[in-house]
Amino acid sequence: MDAAWLEDFLALVDLGHFSRAAEQRNITQPAFSRRVRALEDWVGTPLFVRDAQPVMLTAAGERFRPVAEEILRRLFQGREAAREAGLMAASTLRFASTQVLSLTFFPNWLKAVEAREQFQATVNLTAAHMAACEQLMLRGEAQFLLCHHHPQTSHLLMTDQFQSVCLGTDTLLPVSAPNLDGTGPLYELPGSPMAPLPILSFTNDSGLGRILEGTHVIAESGSSLKPVFASHLTSVLVAMARNGRGLTWAPLSIVSDDLERGTLVRASRAAVDISVEIRLYRPRARQSPTAERMWQLVSSDD
Predict the structure, then answer these.
(1) Does residue 52 register a pLDDT over 90?
(2) Which of 107, 104, 126, 284 lies closest to 208 in space, CA to CA?
(3) How many structural domains are present in the chain?
(4) What are the CA-CA distances from residue 177 to residues 40, 225, 250 (Å)?
(5) What share of the chain is helix, strand, coil (3-state, %, to 5)?
(6) CATH number of domain containing 55
(7) Global pTM value
(8) Of 61, 81, 101, which marks where a domain is finished?
(9) Residue where one domain finishes, among candidates 30, 50, 81
(10) pLDDT per residue over 247-257, tens digit each?
């Protein structure tokens, strides 16, 4: 059995389509399909229902998924442990972060941590959308994940295999470009069924999109909205809002300067803001001494 087969399996689970998974894995679709079939032959039972679109896991596939994730995570952790034991690699701290926090929070937070204790380590940061960050953690390619969190939403790291610590707070709020005379928003909630407001939406890959959906704030506010654009990149949604293309929900940490300058304004007078936590996640399994020391420092403040 090839470990790459497990990565293929998880890519197909994540993306739901053979063509997209093959593209992500940088192989042709026929070769990708053969590798998935080889894994199923090795397991001894089909893992996917192929006549569904997107493809779905069979009952056997559901049972196999956490095993595949744990095996890959252990393999990466084992490789790192072997490298450290053999002095084959310099000490490295590997972070995954959602893209907003990689810009607005991570640099100053890391500076504050290093002011308390200087690490003789290389810091590696991968910034991506939440779905990609989850996979980096599940496969053991990152030691820590920095992301927004709300108790009414869930994600793949909310299991007994991971733990987290709260590092701070943020606020998710609706924003719009100002109207022509600067007296209010160009698009002000709630809108009406006859004139729905254009909304710049998060895609399903976005952690902030999951929070917005999980809190039901749009539905409960009675807003009438018309999707006109979607992206997992908050910075893109904010730029589109700044250009008057619609309203969007965005973290205060990324739009505070715009609100101060007046290039963006709040899009609602009602209480539709969402308070969120900024959390750092890690596997419960023991990591490198450097990673453990980092965790000891940040968790002591919780």
Answers:
(1) no
(2) 104
(3) 2
(4) 52, 16, 13
(5) 45, 25, 30
(6) 1.10.10.10
(7) 0.74
(8) 81
(9) 81
(10) 999 999 999 99
